[in-house]
Amino acid sequence: MNEVQKAIEEITYMSEKFPEEAFRIIISNKEEAIPYLREAVDCAISKGVELDVDKQLHFYALYLLGEFQDRAYFSKIMELVSLPGDTVDYLIGDCVTMELKDILYNTYDGDIALLKESIQNRDINEFVRSAMLDVMGQLFLDGTLEESEWKEFLKENVHDGREYDYIYNEIGYILCQCHFIDMLPEIRYMFNNDLLDETSMGKYDSYVDAMFNYQENERSFCMTSFNAADTLRSCAMFSESEYKVPGEKDFSKMMCTLEKEWNQPVQKKKIGRNDLCPCGSGKKYKYCCLKKPQDSIDLIESPAERRKWLNRYPYTGSERIDGRIYLADYFDEESIETDKILYLALMHRPGLIWRRNIEAEEKRTKEYLYIAFQKCMERMEKEQIPSFAEYDEKYSIHYRCEEWVGELCRLLQENNDIERYKKVKKFVSGNGISIRQ
Fold it and tell me: In the predicted model, what is the mean pLDDT of residues 356-370?
């Protein structure tokens, strides 16, 4: 028995320690090792859940074939991961939601038809199909897949949706990472038809944020190459793994850190009479805003608090980076300013549930929504816009009118703010607009 055969034998069954030396030998003798690795995958396909539970070679083989970029074996790997969900889970477990997309990408042989057909096959595990979708996303980023073909495929899958499937969460994420602003209607469609899970990325407003948000090194759905040993070494199945299950103390510490980060009140800084006015006019405070009546929006939250909570709002500054999309490319300044007020009213503000002040939150929401309503009403009257639907078509960004006006009516009514409630209802009724309340 030569050293490659011995190394294969060493990784055939599960072990407490990661088999460093065996991996080193196999990687150093790629051509000789590949037939053994392929044979292990074939065995897993044929035996399925009947495969000895302690056998691990097929699992290691997937990672090694991925590192070796064994494109000639792509169809077989696809056959393995397309087995019934319970069988796939038994054979490769967490690989499905972790490294499967990288393995598939690195072994992809150019058969786009097979990828498409498999993604649309609902008999295949939804997480496996999502990994395949990521492969297509990476092919688009590589320039291998045309944008028109990619968009058409995504649209087709969205509008064929009839019931929730995890793959729709992945489609929503992909649309945002590709910054396909023209496909926001598809995200809205998925929400309207209960195809998206809010625990994935949040509500519709979070998807709008993500659509305009750019991160460093974001243009990647799959690793274009990877090291099998480095990837597997830290797996929790090995006794020497650095992986640690977070404990109760770790969780509490994390939650306290988040609480401090998000809910720490902005320290109010006293402005001297001779200081420059914070409004940015360049004048001294005593000659500018000192004696001006306070703006109604400042009675809700200070400008500093608003800036803090608008930190996640899409960038609206004047500096531009080539190739990026910006809100100002699609919406005018007035629309954006109204939308920011709605964002302050309705965006999710992280914090510990047991420390929330519901009464204060609802008061803040009500006041912001009423200011937004006034701005919306003035624009509709000025431009003779007959319906919320038409206003939404032209000017709405994160939120549709019927959603937030209904919430405003509820808050005004519950807080016995009768005068403003009647004003809102009169405008709504006068324009023949129906609202959800």
Answer: 92
Nearest to 183 by CA among 148, 138, 140, 131: 148
Question: What is the CB neighbour count within 10 angstroms for residue 56?
Answer: 17
270 or 375: whose pLDDT is higher?
Answer: 375
With 0-12 CB in 10 A as exposed, 13-18 as middle and 19+ as buried, what is 97?
middle
Coil, strand, or helix at residue 71? helix
Element (H, E) at 373: helix 358-383
Alpha-carbon distance 300 to 386, whole Å?
31
Q: What is the pLDDT of residues 353-362, one digit of tens each?
A: 667 788 999 9
Q: Which two tokens stand for residue 376?
A: 């919306």
Q: At a CB cut-off of 8 Å and minimum separation 6, what does 257 contact?
A: none
**pLDDT at position 257 over 70:** no
DSSP H stretches of helix in 213-331: 228-233, 248-263, 303-309
Torsion of CA 425, 426, 429, 431, to 10 degrees: -120
State the pTM of this model. Answer: 0.84
- DSSP code string of 113-158: HHHHHHHT-TTS-HHHHHHHHHHHHHHHHHTSS-HHHHHHHHHHHH
Residue 364's CB is within 10 A of a number of other CB atoms, namely 17
pLDDT band at 241 (very low <50, low <70, confident <90, very high): very low
> CA-to-CA distance for 148 and 422, rounded, in angstroms?
49
The predicted model gives 20-39 an average pLDDT of 96
Contacts of 264 by beta carbon, 8 Å cutoff, 6+ apart: none
Are the C-beta atoms of residues 91 and 80 closer than 8 Å to each other?
yes
Residue 198 in tokens: 């809010």
What secondary structure letter does DSSP report for 101? H
- Cβ(16)–Cβ(239) below 8 Å: yes
Question: In the predicted model, what is the mean pLDDT of the chain?
Answer: 89
